[in-house]
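Quick illustration, no need to memorize.
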Amino acid sequence: MKHEFDSELAEWATTLPVSDLADVDAARTIMANLVAGLARPVDVSTLTVDDRTTTATAENPAVPVRVYRPTADPPPAGFAALLYIHGGGFVMGSVDTEHAGAAQLARELGIVVVSVEYGLAPEHPFPAGIEDCYQALCWLHEQTDELGVDRGRVGVFGQSAGGGLAAGLALLARDRGGPALCLQFLGIPELDDRLDTPSMRAFVDTPLWNRPNAELSWQYYLGESTGDVSPYAAPARATDLRGLPPAYVSTMEFDPLRDEGIIYALRMLEAGVSVELHQFPGTFHGSGVIATASVSKRQHVEQMEVLRRRLHVDRP
């Protein structure tokens, strides 16, 4: 199928590696190599970076997290904070592959970032990943005094499968009466296991993500479970979206996940949730990794502006 990609992205579309989730180990290696190949030096000179673990509970083991904290003294009200949930189709990615992105947010915004090493499918199917993220959110709130964080300015940030997990976490925290979130940042989120939107049916050959991979992704994540799929796994299935934190949702034009992100944003608006939605033209899933493209630069500027505004972070 011919896709009218943005001119600065088109040349990359045919050169990006193709990952086939039918071989999970190979797909993980391809993703790690892609990130390494595109990586720029990571400046953490103004940050303290620590690998820690959450406190184990009777129900769940401890979860590894990587904490990025400005070395400067916290402002009088404390730092804002983000729980950072990496992408990778529920089966790939790690705090290492997302190290540069998490460090950049902490550095440029002057906030605390806690990146979660949640359990990956198929070894750890639902609900392992979302429970790990919830445990990390609770831990972050428990550590606000030590980290100098203002617990009234804690948000969740995720892209791709991380965006789906972030949406599920917002639902779970609401329903459990758990820690409050001031923002859910849902970048190109993976939300709907039913795979029945026009974009999901159309985009079977798009770069970095396509329908065949989406099918395997959900099979691995949902595992052997039968019966109704939980909205904490697939937030698009949630019937009540009232009372969720303000949301930012981004979608890409030639992305099978495009329509489910747009529909979820509209449904949240209908439920009275404050939502900002941006559909970027000429883009494909994950095209933001091509940082030199003008549309990617616009995405980044908007991302940082949204985070500053919703986290109430002053400009440097």
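The longest helix spans residues 294-311.
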